[in-house]
Design a protein that fits this description.
By secondary structure, this protein is an alpha/beta fold. It is built from 13 helices and 16 strands. The relative contact order is 0.17. The structure holds 2-succinylbenzoate and magnesium ion. 2-succinylbenzoate (OSB) binds next to loops.
Amino acid sequence: MSLQLARITLREIRMVLREPFEISSGRTTDRRILLLELQDAGGATAWSECVAGERPNYSAETIDTAWLAITEWIAPRLLGMRLDGPHLIDDMLRRGIRDHSMAKAAVEMGAWALAAEREGVSLSRLLGGTRAAIGTGISIGIQANPQALADKADAALAHGYRKIKMKIRPGADIDYIAAVREALGPQAPLMADANSAYTPAHADHLAELDAYRLLMIEQPLAQDDLRRHAQLQDRLDTPICLDESIPHAAAAEDMLALGAGRIVNVKPGRVGGFTQAKAIHDLCRNHAVPVWCGGMLESGVGRAHNVALASLPNFTIPGDVSPSARYWTEDIVTPEWTMDANGMVAVPTDRPGLGVEVKVDRVNDLTVRTKTLKWRGNG
Ligand code: OSB
Ligand code: MG
């Protein structure tokens, strides 16, 4: 199935989170979200979202670097090019453009969505998804005190969420996890995410978390430090899950070879898109390592991409793919993403492409800047 991108429109929209979200490296209240609308030479269109944040506290990329990378380097490389399929884009963008994975992923995932539209199949189906519904968890930001976190976790469990992830940092960790374990009981599926807030000097401290039987601890150490993650994993009973440390499939190979972790949080927007995400999925499946789909506080557009990916068979652990209402008073897609009382989000397998429609009027209302890049044609 050949694909030829004729136009890419970038839009920055502003959306206010229903509640602030705090991780070890910073707090987010207002999201600045970069949306793309891609159009092929035949006139078909599809939407995608860049997961880059407002500040470089999760990765080096921000919405502003992504805007630059897409307009200056990524879009010019692809516009007008005839491609035998979206699976070729990852390799093409790797040559001569270092990093900028979130910017690349936005375009790559949009091309997959466009291919799904063109073929009249769901994005899930095109990616190789096998599930009709995906299990979802919740990611809870750092709270003012342990009791506040325990109350939030308790409400989330009652709501149906199948995994409770709690953000931690030095000074807001063991007391917090202890309070939640105490409140929710020994069977509750709990985990912690440190976003690289610790160093190897914290190994004894982190080993104290073993007592609380967490499903995993996500990204305790620095993003570029697989070796020390392997040393820490030797010290801990709790499985380490890597997020920031896995920017592409080769890093997942290294993780496995070094024993730097036992679980991978796959975010397609972090790893350069669906081709790398699928490669990580397949690699981990072959090594009997489970994966789950992370989130980046996406709008309903990026969420559609995550839901489709999470429908692949080795996504056996509930993802951070919460329903729209967890984040927004009103999402930009219809229908909004919802979760049933058992913590399941339905995969829209019966509709082509994303399976949700973008509310263009609402997007226009929220837009603060826009730019359209066009293929000038053969002539
Ligand atoms: O580390 O997984 C993370 C949000 C922003 C940046 C990093 C992370 C997160 C989350 C939110 O945990 C997950 C979600 O979208 O609900
Ligand atoms: Mg994380």
